[in-house]
Structures are given as C-alpha cells and as structure tokens.
Amino acid sequence: MTEPTKVADDVTKVFDTILVLDFGSQYSHLIVRRLREIKVYAEMLPCTQKISELKFKPIGIILSGGPYSVYEEGAPHVDPSIFDLNVPILGICYGMQEIAWINGKGVSRGDKREYGPAILNVTDKECPLFKGMDNSRVWMSHHDKLTELPSGFKTVATTSNSPYAGVSDETKQIYGIQFHPEVTHTVQGKQLLQNFAVDICKAPQNWTMENFIENAIERIRATVGPTAEAIGAVSGGVDSSVAAKLMREAIGDRFHAIFVDNGLMRKDEAIQVKKALDDGLGINLVVVDAGDEFLTNLKGVTDPEKKRKVIGHTFIHVFERVANQIKPKDGSDVGFLLQGTLYPDVIESISFKGPSQTIKSHHNVGGLIDNMQLKLIEPLRELFKDEVRHLGELLGLPEELVWRHPFPGPGIGIRVLGEVTPKQVQIAREADYIFISEIRKAGLYRQISQAFACLLPVKSVGVMGDQRMYEQVIALRAIETVDFMTADWFVFDAAFLKRVASRIVNEVTGVSRVTYDITSKPPATVEWE
Ligand code: GLN
Fold first, then answer.
1. CATH code, domain carrying 455
2. d(Cα 380, Cα 87) in Å, to the nearest integer?
3. Is 512 marked within a binding site?
C-alpha cells in the first residue's frame, strides 16, 4: 500500500495565500479574481479581521478600496498588527489612504472628486511594483487624497491629478496606489497585481484546478472519514454535478446523490440528468419522481414569493423523506450533507458592509441540516464559477453539463406566471424547448448566458387557418452577462426571432403570440417571477 497523502484541512495550508482585506469596495472581489487568473491563490476577509485569529499566515496582504474616509469618525480600520507580520502589503485607494493614515495621518478631502481614467507616470523605474509599466491608462475613483508622504515612504508614480498615485516603503515592502488595478479599465492592472504577488510576495503560481483536484478529493476523504456516508441534492446544474463527481471520486458509493424531479424541469431534462450522472459519471444516484406532489401543493398559488416558498418546502420534504431511507451499510446514520456553495456566496456573506452591517449567512437548504443533524460539506466553497467549469472539464463531465445555462430551483414553476397547472407547465416547456433548440442550432448557446421562455397568462387574439384564436402569450428572454448582477438582452437577428416565433405558434397548442423581452437588468431581473 502507498503511504497516505498528507491531507490539509484547508486550502490555505496547501496553496500560498494572499489575503485581501475588504473595506467594502464594490470591486474587492475582483482583486481575488485577478490573482486567481494569474494562478495565485487569494482569499478575502473583512477589514475587521483580527490578525491573531487568522487561520493561516498569508504571503502578502492587499487592502481594498472602500466608500469611507479614513479620517471620519467610525471609519473602518485595519488591525495594525498586519504590519508586524513582515509580509508585503499593497494598499489600493482607501487601502493606501489607510496605510498613510496609520503612518502619519496625511489624508484629507481633495478639492475635486476624481472618477475615471488617468495616465500613470512611473517616476521610480526601479520600483518592482511597476515593473514593465509606464504611461498606461489607470482607473481612478476617489475624493480623498494623500496630503503628504507617510513617514518612511517615497513617491514612485504620479498622474496629472495625483502627485501620490503610487508610494512605497521598499525596505518594509509596503506599497500604496491611488488607482484600481483590479478593474479592466486599468490597462496594466493585472501586470501590477502579478508584480506584487509573484515578484514581491514570491507567490508560486500553483493555483490550478489540476492541483486543486487531488487535494480536494483527499480533503473530502479526511472530512468524511473511512466509514461515514454522505448525501446531496443534484439538479443537473454544473455546480451540483461537479460537487457530486468530486464526492464520488473521494468516497465512491458512500455518496448518495438525490435528484428530485419536481415536474418543473425542462423537456427531457430528468432523463438527461440521470443519464449523465448515473450512467456517465458513475454517481450513486436516486431519482425521485415527485412532480405530482409539487403540482398538488402549487394548486391555486399565484404569488411569486409564495410559489417559491411552496416549491422550496416541498423540496425539503421530499428530500428528507428519501434521505431518511438511505441507510449506510453498517446501520449508522448518514453523516454529511453536500452543498455546492461557491466562493461568490461566501464573499457575499463575509464582505464588509459598513458599521451597521448585519452579516447575511447563506443557506440554501439550511432547514435540512437542523432537522437531520447532518454536517455540511462544501467542496467548491473556494471556487469561482469559471473555476468550477474548468474543474468539471477535468473531471470528465460532458460539455453540455459543464456549460449548461443556470436554471432556477423552482424551474418552470416561476416561468409560468400565475397559477402553475400541468397544462401550463406543458405549454411553457414546449415553447422553451423550441427556443433553446433553435439557439443551439444557431451556435449561440455559449454566447448567451441564460435563455428561456415564459408563459404569460394573458389571452390574445389571433387567426390560424381561418380560425379565430384566443390564446396565451409566450415571452422569450435571453441575456448576456458576466456575473448576473447586471445583464443585457441578447441581440438576435430578425430572421432568428421570426423562425422561433413561427415555430412556437405553429407547434405549441395554446399560444397565439410570441414576444421578446428587451429589458436590461437592472431595472428588470433575469427571471420574471
Ligand atoms: N472614500 C475614499 C475616497 O474617496 C476611498 C475611495 C475608494 O477606495 N475607492 O478617496
């Protein structure tokens, strides 16, 4: 037998980590993103993090921007012991002002707000932070400014408006910049972050999904132990499928995936999910056909929030019932519940939202854990969506699964406006199928972030084969987005829309009219309910 691999219980023990302390800027998560893109592992914590309570020793620290002013009463301040860790520090905007405030209080409100592009002039060509950079466009977003150099610092870069666009104390390896390197408007921003992480902090650039996999599997084994079993819901989406495949690799048949067919899935989806996970990936899968139960509970419910609640509760009910029937071979209880939580959810729950913040905790199936006394296992907690997709490819998931558009838990239940009846679900499902098939045929599926058909319970007059029709309306929605926080509608060519509309009216009984939703988010949301 081979020696067991040494297992770390935390990613930070395997990958050298840069710590990003968040002061509440809307861009903070992008700092983490950019570092991951250059294969450097980074994690974000709120700026109020006590250094003595850190679970790992970072190889460098980045202080983010933030909406406050360092000199204000109640402004957030970093634990000053970051300066005793003897690791390189980079302050961005508020982060730089914070460094200056701690080292001499030379910060005050500037005469004018600076928002937008500026040209960076690197005045100290030797400064390692600006290696390979000069005269490029940087993005500014501030009102406060440094009024003098913090003690021990020198100026290394300027812009026409900011005499202290970059400052450094090279003996202590502390750097501050007034602009935002994490946004793409800063042309060489990634270069700067790479200079900091790789050259200054000596990050090994080993954060790859290839490296992640092996350790993730070992960590699951260590967490679950040699005999316990785990359960988890799968939906056919990329997150739950990747998480399930990791569990399967780690503990084989001791992981039980439960797929609840709520009768609100897309056409043929339940069959496809079963085929991909069970036959394709060898995951120990239980499929529960609970469509009738969901539809019965939805009878007479028209309010969108109420619908979501009914669907959520029914799901928990069904899941628990099935999970309780799963008995480990040794007669013990199932010990773990798998959840496909991703890093953006984690960030959302820990990011700094100001003195009055109430920390939002994220629970998808929170109720389940209380009732069933299961321990939560979240193997994707450190990953962004694109990292999960890459992981899925490495784990051999079919392309269709890896790149599947997101699909809400309540499914077609919130795409049939008004009351959800079997007949209405059927109409929405058929129309959706035609729309998605045509999108695939046109080679647009990957370009579009999400697309679907909605059934509006509004009657509209039409004529077909000399017959007067008085039927319902289908609204098509297709959006493009990077992060789903904001989105724009997808511009199809007219011939495509014509084709889809004519197929839907001709092939789906009960539809007399098709419209295309041309609203961006905001103000509209992606889903209609
Ligand atoms: N509130 C500070 C300022 O106005 C910092 C802004 C920021 O970090 N983007 O300068």
1. 3.30.300.10
2. 28
3. no
* pLDDT attached to residue 353: 74
Is 167 annotated among the ligand-binding residues? Answer: no
Give the single-character DSSP code of 395. T
* Mean per-residue pLDDT of the chain: 91
- Residue 187 within any structural domain of the chain: yes
| Ligand 1 center to 144 CA (angstroms) | 6
Q: In ligand 1, which atom is closest to the CA atom of 67? A: 1
Give burial (CB, 10 Å; 0-12/13-18/19+) of 124. Answer: middle
Q: Is 356 annotated as a binding residue?
A: no
239 with 184, same domain?
Answer: no
ipTM value greater than 0.90: yes
Question: Is residue 48 domain-shared with residue 82, that is, in the same domain?
Answer: yes
Atom of ligand 1 nearest to the CA of 66: 8
177 and 171 Cβ atoms separated by less than 8 Å: no
| Active-site residue list | 93, 180, 182
Residue 357 has pLDDT above 90, yes or no: no
Domain tally, the chain: 3
* Together in a domain, 109 and 48: yes
Ligand 1 atom nearest the C-alpha of 65 is 8
HEC per residue, 82-128? HHHCCCCEEEECHHHHHHHHHCCCCEEEEEEEEEEEEECEECCCCCH
380 touches 346 (CB < 8 A) = no
The pLDDT tens digits of the residues spanning 201-226 come to 999 999 999 999 989 999 999 999 99
What is the four-CA torsion angle of 187, 192, 195, 200, rounded to 10 degrees? 180
Closest to 231 in 3D by CA, of 331, 371, 312, 327: 327
- pTM score of the predicted model: 0.86
> For strand 60-63 and strand 17-22, is the pairing parallel, antiparallel, or unpaired?
parallel
Q: The domain containing residue 353 runs over which residues? A: 228-403
Whether residue 91 is found in the same domain as residue 125: yes
For residue 368, pLDDT over 90 is answered with no
- Any binding-site annotation on 420? no
pLDDT value at position 355?
54
pLDDT band, very low/low/confident/very high, at 352 (cuts 50, 70, 90): confident
Confidence check: pLDDT of 132 > 60: yes
- Which tens digit of pLDDT belongs to each residue from 251-282? 999 999 999 999 999 999 999 999 999 999 99
Q: Tell me how far the alpha carbon of residue 513 lies from the centroid of ligand 1, in angstroms.
A: 51
Which residues are near ligand 1 (CB < 6 Å)?
Answer: 25, 65-69, 93-94, 141-144
Nearest residue by C-alpha to atom 6 in ligand 1: 142
Retrieve residue 379's tokens: 């193997």
CA of 156 to the centre of ligand 1 (A): 20
Residue 365, pLDDT score: 46
- Please state, in angstroms and as integers, the Cα–Cα distance from residue 8 to each residue in 77, 214, 221, 338, 379, following that order: 32, 11, 11, 19, 13
User: Quick one: 34 and 147 in the same domain?
Assistant: yes
* Residues 29 and 177 grouped into a single domain: yes
Query: How far is residue 80's CA from residue 101's CA, in Å, rounded to a whole number?
Result: 11
Is 3 contained in some domain? Answer: no
User: What spacing in Å lies between the alpha carbon of 17 and ligand 1's midpoint?
Assistant: 26
